[in-house]
Automatic annotation (TrEMBL):
Species per Swiss-Prot/TrEMBL record: Periweissella fabalis
GO biological process: folic acid-containing compound biosynthetic process; tetrahydrofolate interconversion
Designated name of the protein: 5-formyltetrahydrofolate cyclo-ligase
Residues at which ATP binds: K3, E4, T5, L6, R7, R131, I132, G133, F134, G135, G136, G137, Y138, Y139
Catalytic activity: (6S)-5-formyl-5,6,7,8-tetrahydrofolate + ATP = (6R)-5,10-methenyltetrahydrofolate + ADP + phosphate
Family, per entry: Belongs to the 5-formyltetrahydrofolate cyclo-ligase family.
Keyword Chaperone listed: no
Keywords assigned: ATP-binding, Ligase, Magnesium, Metal-binding, Nucleotide-binding
EC number(s) from the headed UniProt entry: 6.3.3.2
Amino acid sequence: MDKETLRQDAIIALRQLTLDAKNAIMADNLKQLSNLPDWQNAQNIGITYSMPLELPTQLIINKALEIGKNVYLPKCMPGHQLKFLPYQLNDQLVKNSFGVLEPIEQEVPTPAPIDLLIVPGLRFACNNGMRIGFGGGYYDRFLVNFVGTKISLSAKELVTEQMDWQSESFDQPVDRILIGEKNANNK
């Protein structure tokens, strides 16, 4: 299948999940993430502040800040580039032209390198870590030179065992995909 069709199918799947289901999936993702040495050892976490359609990242952000980690949110820059800026609870965020909440750029010291990057996406392949994002290529460009750990958090509705699309030369994989379950507490 082509990426755009899969992207639209993923958007439909996300719209069909209730907010309670999305929260349960992310709670399960957080539980899995918390058990990973990559999370435990990371001091600087890069993560997107999710849009209403997406799985809510606020739970991950709040947990990271609660346990003393530094959180960095991306800001879209010219040339489809990302710049990660420090974030604290109650910092003002503004919507960019895509509707994504971003930090307001201020004079801040150069942040430490991000140890762990939570990479968003709409579709994921377990066999090779490839992902389909929203189509702007921002994360693929950023990941080319990123040396930390790359993890995506997903729901089973958005994951396939084998990649069922044609990757392009600029597509960048993640190191690990965590798959949250709606009813993880019932296992």
